[in-house]
TrEMBL record:
This is 3'(2'),5'-bisphosphate nucleotidase. It comes from Citrullus colocynthis (colocynth). Belongs to the inositol monophosphatase superfamily. InterPro entries: DPNP, Inositol_monoP_metal-BS, Inositol_monoP_superfamily, Inositol_monophosphatase-like, Inositol_monophosphatase_CS. The lineage of its organism: Eukaryota, Viridiplantae, Streptophyta, Embryophyta, Tracheophyta. It catalyses: adenosine 3',5'-bisphosphate + H2O = AMP + phosphate; 3'-phosphoadenylyl sulfate + H2O = adenosine 5'-phosphosulfate + phosphate.
Length: 453
């Protein structure tokens, strides 16, 4: 039974939300214990779709006040600092997004339409600006190359003065609190040209060699506007391989039982309880480094608290379920970029019984990595091209959490061909383990020729 959030704008009616799932199929987290994470000296390894998934301990859900210490991030000097800065930047970006979303929910804020009619808000440009600025400040602008979704064309159009002013103010308000996230802020307020420069600096086209970052400042803008799920997605790619991934999920609750309720309802109930410095109910940041064999999750930083590094986090793993009859699969909310009818037929043919978890953005990848679902399937319609920023962070996180991500032919996703996943065969499939993955691949092969995609 689908659950709905309230309409936020008459031009953007809310047709979908979280789909209620069978609570018994969702794993529990309180049994997870913190570990000290050590990155070995050889940090890059070849991912394989035959990896064996780790099981998730079963016990009661995480409770407020259940403290976790660690992990201790160490290892290759070439990436340890990048991970620390990336996590801090995404934490800060989530803080910014929550402020902007609150304004959208109460006043309808400023929502613009891009050339493809997809929505974009102050948060999209502001997050891109602060992450671009932080990365450049931390590593030197000459050493930072970023592939990102937004540009400054809309902000530079005549009549966009009010929108541009809002972005500049939002950026500076956020950067004033950079110290809370273990980051160095600017010595003085950024002027309009500096903010525009930070946004437009994200103009890399990627490629097979060298190092570059991918950024989706607000993945799932439609969910963001509607008060539903969205994500801040940042990844680092070296010579075509995703080596770091960070996902900020501000509306994705740590308590699994909250998944059955709309984020709007959850927000209201949360305000009735006493807030804590690190509430596991109010969103999370998930991250992983390639080759570590671990994915980690920490709560968002709230109120006036500071991010401490090493930080409060727990190790997460994919679900141990490999029976399709018990598995939960998730798919995109919008039909525009994914065929619900094909995935429904595929689910039936492979024996999936649970209703799909329809959720905006790369939160789907977080759901697989965390064990809230076992399968993610996306089969775009003809002509649609997948962008690397929509997948990079989620892919490495699932892989390090013990899962498998490939295209629908079973080949690893290729991030070395520029802004798009060129050569992608039919679609994207992410699974909690190799057994489920093989069953889905075989079902796709059997069904594809009769589909009209």
């Amino acid at each position: 039974m689908p659950l709905y959030t309230a309409n936020l704008a008459s031009k953007l009616p809310h047709r979908f939300g979280f789909t209620r799932t069978n609570a018994s199929s969702l794993p529990n987290y309180a049994g997870l214990k913190p570990f000290f994470l050590f990155f070995p000296s050889t940090h890059v390894h070849n991912s394989s779709q035959n990896r064996i998934c780790s099981s998730v301990p079963s016990s009661s859900s995480i409770m407020e006040g259940n403290k976790h210490v660690g992990p201790l991030i160490s290892g290759p000097k070439s990436l340890s600092q990048e991970l620390k800065v990336a996590v801090g930047a995404v934490q800060m970006a989530c803080f910014l997004c929550q402020r902007v979303q609150s304004n959208l929910l109460t006043s309808n804020g400023q929502i613009q339409a891009k050339d493809d009619n997809s929505p974009v808000t102050v948060a999209d440009w502001s997050v891109q600006a602060i992450i671009s600025w932080i990365l450049s400040k931390s590593f030197g602008s000459k050493n930072v190359s970023i592939v990102a979704e937004e540009d400054v064309q809309t902000l530079s159009k005549p009549g966009a003065d009010r929108l541009l002013k809002a972005v500049v103010e939002t950026v500076n308000e956020c950067l004033c609190e950079a110290y809370r996230f273990g980051l160095e802020g600017p010595e003085s307020t950024l002027c309009t040209s500096e903010v525009l420069e930070a946004i437009s600096r994200c103009n890399s086209s990627g490629g097979p060699t060298g190092r570059f970052w991918t950024l989706d400042p607000v993945d799932g803008t439609l969910g963001f506007i509607r008060g539903d799920q969205y994500a801040v997605a940042l990844a680092l790619i070296e010579d075509g391989e995703v080596v770091l991934g960070v996902l900020g999920c501000p509306n994705y609750p740590m308590r699994k039982e909250w998944l059955c309720y709309s984020p709007r309802y959850h927000s209201i109930i949360s305000k009735l309880s006493t807030a804590t410095s690190e509430s596991w109910d109010k969103g999370c940041v998930i991250y992983a480094q390639k080759g570590s064999g671990e994915a980690w999750m920490q709560p968002l930083i709230h109120a006036n608290k500071k991010l401490v590094w090493p930080n409060s986090a727990i190790s997460i793993h994919v679900s141990s379920i490999d029976d399709p009859a018990l598995a939960t699969f998730c798919e995109p909310v919008e039909k525009a970029n994914s065929s619900h009818s094909f995935t429904a037929g595929l689910a039936h043919s492979v024996g999936l019984r649970n209703q799909p978890l329809r959720v905006y953005s790369m939160v789907k990848y977080a759901a697989i990595a965390r064990g809230d679902a076992e399968i993610f399937m996306k089969f775009a319609r003809a002509g649609y091209k997948e962008k690397i920023w929509d997948h990079a962070a989620g892919v490495v996180i699932i892989q390090e959490a013990g899962g498998v991500v490939t295209d629908a032919r079973g080949c690893l996703l290729n991030f070395s061909n520029g802004m798009y996943l060129e050569g992608l065969d039919r679609g994207v499939i992410a699974c909690a383990g190799a057994n489920l993955h093989d069953k889905i691949i075989r079902a796709v092969d059997a069904s594809w020729n009769s589909s009209c995609l």
